Amino acid sequence: MDFKNKILIKFSDFFFFYSYIGNKVFVALFLSFTVGLMDGLGLAMFVPLLQMVDGSSEFQANQSNVGNMVFFIDALNSIGLSMNLVTVLSLILIFFSLKGIFRFSESYFNVVLTTDFAKKVRKEGVDAISNLNFKYFVQLDSGKIQNTLSSEIVRLRMAFTSYSASIQAFMSVIVYISLAFVTNPQFAILVVIGGLFSNFLYTKLYKKTKETSKKITLSNSVFHGLMIQQIQNFKYLRATGKIELYKRKIKKSIDQVDQAFKKIGFFNSILSATKEPLSIAVVVVVILIQTQFYSTELGPIILALLFFYRSLNQVIVFQNHWNNFMNNSGAVENHRTFILNLNENRIDYNKGVLVKKIEKIDFEDVSFSYVDRPILKNINLSINQKQTVAFVGPSGSGKTTISNLIAGLLPIDSGWFKINGIEFNELNLNQYQSLIGYITQEPVIFNDSIYNNITMWADKNEGNIKKFNDCIERAHLTEFFASIEFNEDHILGNNGVLISGGQKQRIAIARELFKDVELFILDEATSALDSETEKEIQSYFDNLRGNYTIIVIAHRLSTIRNADLIYLMKDGKIIGSGDFNTLQEISPEFKKMVSLQDFSFVE
Questions:
Q1: Do the beta carbons of residue 565 and residue 577 sit within 8 Å?
Q2: What is the CATH number of the domain that holds 110?
Q3: Strands (DSSP E) along 413-518, which ranges?
Q4: Which domain holds residue 245?
Q5: Is 437 left (phi over 0), alpha (psi -120 to 50) or beta?
Q6: Mean pLDDT, residues 528-555 taken together
Q7: How do residues 342-354 score in pLDDT, each as one tens digit?
Q8: Helix (H, G, I), strand (E, B) or coil at 360
């Protein structure tokens, strides 16, 4: 491994945070430096003050009472500041006032940095998910997504705060040690050696803390995944009496998280209990060595000790913040890997040729596989503008996959997929998809008002409200709309829990009408409805024929009886095509499917 890679690995956390806040980190370090410097200069003034206890009106600086800091006193004398009581007290006030100003600047700047960092991280996550390749998205663990973009963001922010604070504390340590070196180099060297030795003792403890932090991240992801699945599958678990079994599984994951937190707590307790005694022991030993073996005057030692006392406090602050960073470092590694994986599987949806109308859709020898398993094989089809085209066939035949390809959710493996004669990979995908209305058997309903569900949060101006009301009428929602409280502000509940299946479908239809779509994709759109509601919704879709291009994926053949063109699929291939009557004549398989289904309710 070359030197550059070693540096990148050693300081990977710094470069991670730097990628978000940039050169602002150096402003924070400068402010920390000035805080330490003003504090150190203020402390240096206490030595003259202590020397005046015997009644001296002025302080005479020399090597024996201030060590090498005599140059600082001489510099003040050279500009006309004699070291009398008034001057010393004034300088103490000035230096500590400046320290307060810089401390405020440092503190508030850290708040700005932290909030900016959290904002950028959250927005990066939203962008990464929004631009993700759908084929990769369906492979992701929903628990990991939920955990990484919610609770792990909190831990990541805490990691940044702790890392930033530890680096700034380290900067203060450098300032104080530098001042101690200037005052008494020998004393400073001995204390630094002792400090490095004590810090070495904690290295393994930091390593174990970091490993445990990673386990917390993993355990949290498992817990979030289990909770999401419990909520999604609550009806089944409750109805089958399996919820107790699943509850025990969740509680086991909670215990794993709890054990990891307790382990980190144990390490933290050791660190907090031993840091100060060990540091004081180092200072005591060094003072004894200086006075007993080197006969050093106490004056320079006291001044250096003042600096080291401040340094000691900052070392403890550094270690506390660093350990807090270790506690949350798993979130850093998790987020870094998570975002990297997302970015490697993202698509630029906003580049390419703009399509204002969908006039023709063509598949030429299109094949598609999922994880090396062939789904579609040499598909050839053509869909014209304002044509209603249906895809039927047994489960697993590839019907929904075709609709996903047409919607731009999946890339083809081979062949040609063209819109208006333009190859699909040359299109502006985001603009193309804005022309598509997509309705499934479980329509998307947001936990929001009926107005926001239909308009997708459009401004409530006169034009949009008029268009909203028009879509309500066209989707046959007028009676329902008149019966609800708060009218357009009526909340529909999570996944539309407060409304019926038919009302969900009508709201989904109204939403697509509001968007002014060109193409409707109906993927089993009425299969979850009772026969009467299905007949009503199907009648509505039939009324849309000739006004929109409509693609229907269906098991119930009654819903596609009036389609202009029907493709019969089996094992990823098209085995027949034609209108309803023609396909019965040329395909025994389709004729058998018709004979097995009840058509009485559409007669």
A1: yes
A2: 1.20.1560.10
A3: 414-419, 422-423, 436-440
A4: 3-114+135-344
A5: beta
A6: 79
A7: 888 888 888 999 9
A8: strand
